[in-house]
Design brief:
heterodimer, A: Uridine Diphospho-n-acetylenolpyruvylglucosamine Reductase, domain 2, Alpha-Beta Plaits, 18 helices, 18 strands, 19% strand, B: alpha+beta, Uridine Diphospho-n-acetylenolpyruvylglucosamine Reductase, domain 3, 3 domains, 6-stranded antiparallel beta sheet, 4-stranded antiparallel beta sheet, 13 helices, 16 strands
Chain lengths: 497, 378
Amino acid sequence: MSLSMPPPEPSILSRRAEIVAALGRIVPGEGVIADDARLAPYESDGLTAYRQKPLAVVLPETVEQVSRILHWCHAQGVKVVPRGAGTSLSGGALPLADAVLLGMGKFNRILDIDYEDRVAVVQPGVTNLAITRAVEDRTFYYAPDPSSQIACSIGGNVAENSGGVHCLKYGLTTNNVLGCEIVLMDGEVLRIGGRHLDPAGLDLLGVLVGSEGLLGVVTEVTVRILPQPETARALLIGFPDAESAGRCVADTIAAGIIPAGMEMMDRPAIHAAEAFVQVGYPLDVEALLIVELDGPMAECDHLIGEVEAIACRNSASSVRISSSEAERAAFWAGRKAAFPAVGRLAPDYYCMDGTIPRRRLPEVLEAMRHLSERYGLAVANVFHAGDGNLHPLILYDANKPGELDRAEAFGNDILRLCVEVGGVLTGEHGVGVEKRDLMPEMFTETDLKQQQRLKCAFDPDLLLNPGKVFPRLHRCAELGRMHVHGGALPFPDLPRF
Amino acid sequence: MADMALPTCEQDVADAVADALRDGVRLAIAGGGSKAAIGAPAEARALPMSGLRGVVDYDPAELVLTVRPGTPLREIEALVAGEGQRLAFDPFDHGPILGAAAGAATIGGVVAAGVSGSRRVSAGAVRDHLLGFRAVSGRGEAFAAGGKVVKNVTGFDLPKLAAGSWGRLFALTELTLKVLPRPRESRTLMLAGLSDAQAVHAMSRAMGSQADVAAAAHLPGRATILRVQGFGPSVAARCAMLDAVLADFGRPVALPSDDADAMWAALRTLSPLGGERPLWRISIAPSRACAAIAPFRDEAACLFDWAGGLIWAATQAEPGALRAAVSAAGGHAMLVRADARMRAAVPAFHPPAGGMAALETRVRRAFDPMSLFETGRF
């Protein structure tokens, strides 16, 4: 593994027993884990290529405990890595040898459901799907649906600004969260937002969401819940080439239709999925599109016809329309199983997550084929086609010397390509440690320093989740320096912050 | 103080910031001036943005528009309408509310003020649809944040801070916004004779139904209105749904489009709340709306938008008491219109609690260490 993390501080490592004892005084009983065997499950998150045992794991149950833990660690200069369910695909919860891992799994209660204002107030360890389960008997649901929704926690969703197949129409986590309670690194507890729509001042909630655990620890989340659509129907459309599929997507949007989901798979992904789940995907096509429409029956019936006509105009070679829930589920079964299905083709796979302007898809796929040949590694593509979010799956074998490094180099080239064509490094998985060192591909040093100054406003000692997102963490004092023009200090009368 | 040449590019803005830092003067970023009458009267060197104007890139199929901030809002609305689209959020022009001319608002001002009209309840706000930006910080440095694609989680989401920053963090020099298809049809249903409380219940019932209501508002003494937008067959089906959902509140009547447009325009221009009385903008959970304004409801003139989540109130209520009542109900109140003396004494923004105030200040200093953009207006 080529990743370099902040070197562990010997002075912290040597104080391990004292730190464990102090944590034990704050969270008595079973709340602190320090023996090697029981630390093992916390060594990595969903990005399993990277592993590191934490200094200790602490599992608080109350906000007060979280506050005291952070306050104590802050005072003692001990780093803290927050963790939800540990499903991050970018290493957001990767431990550090000299950091306390703060597990929020015991915050698992739904605190309030308010159908009048259409909000749910939940603790951060509640799973994404559990929110929908709690409100579905009243025909409501929580819209963002990351593929890990059965396991991932809402606190982790807030940290990563998680998406899902429906976010083209319903938005990411950030568009569906109204308020949070957070604890800053120094232990201060703050409420940001609430059940109202607009913030009173700066939109700090907006930067907290997606901050990858670098700004604060979330201890309560208020989310919007939505009425379930009356129905949903899907089309399964095969194309002889990716260009036609791409045109079909563009024409659908140009016709004023924003589908609930619009997913594309390339030939390797189609074949892998069909071999795995046998749902009748066409095997003689280069691209497969699943278009899902939701809303009132009358709307779905109307738009299904429109999309079918658009597909036919774009040389679709096959069109199937779901006539039952079972059939719709079957269309999705292959897509939802695409990762494990591709996983059967090779011992390991590496899932990428760049976004591109959709019109550049054919050339990006072509360039990816060249890269695939150059690196000697196969790649299968699943693609949130509506919003341009690519998930190339690179196949490799970690037991073959050098293949993991080659897979990572291939992945990095794909992400550079995404930035080159006007896109971004990550559409929904986050930067974490995985894309950290690629940040300069997308941002200048000035851009990155400005983002880090925001970090300094929340955590000036850089103790919360260090080593993530930024390739190099500048000390806050260094970032605060200003070059003074003409030797004169501006605003001599102003208090300095 | 020397007059500033009109900046026409990002470098000009950076130079203007550097000059102001050297001269020890503060900068008031100015767009079209439609919102200039909000906040305390302040003395500062103006940094006019009207020279940074025009469309940088517009690709309708990608749903993305990149513009310079000094571009008039109405030019942008006309441009995207020409492609059958609209901005993904619901902008409007503050001019008529504050006694200024209509049509002066710029897109930069709309974004900086986080302006959201009636569709905010279904479509989201500026903050939800500002994908990326370029700006010059209070350090005089040009920087970029966010991206130019509709889905992006790379780095901190600084565009969220830009929306509603009111010119206190940095000077925006380029904005990338999401656009969406314009709906084919729009229909407005009206219920008559509802009290505030009944109207909030009715709007909540409608928003909680499968009718996918685009906007819901209550004009006391006049009407409670619900807007349904989309494709023809869908609009018809959803209006029929609302008939059933709202049966407890009377029979909804479909308004002729002229009447409907007039009512929605009243919520944009706030024409029913004209005059001299101080005007407040109260953001609140809808179920608490009536409790929040109860202490001054009798003497206030109000409009309820966002299904009750936004109350515009023209009232002489004592500001401290008004804010205390709104705070107690979990919301906040912004002072939008008042005479200069009141604006000098009463902060436009609802004062945040201690810890939040300190954090907000630290965040401001992260972008503007010398308080260059702190004109005393807020």
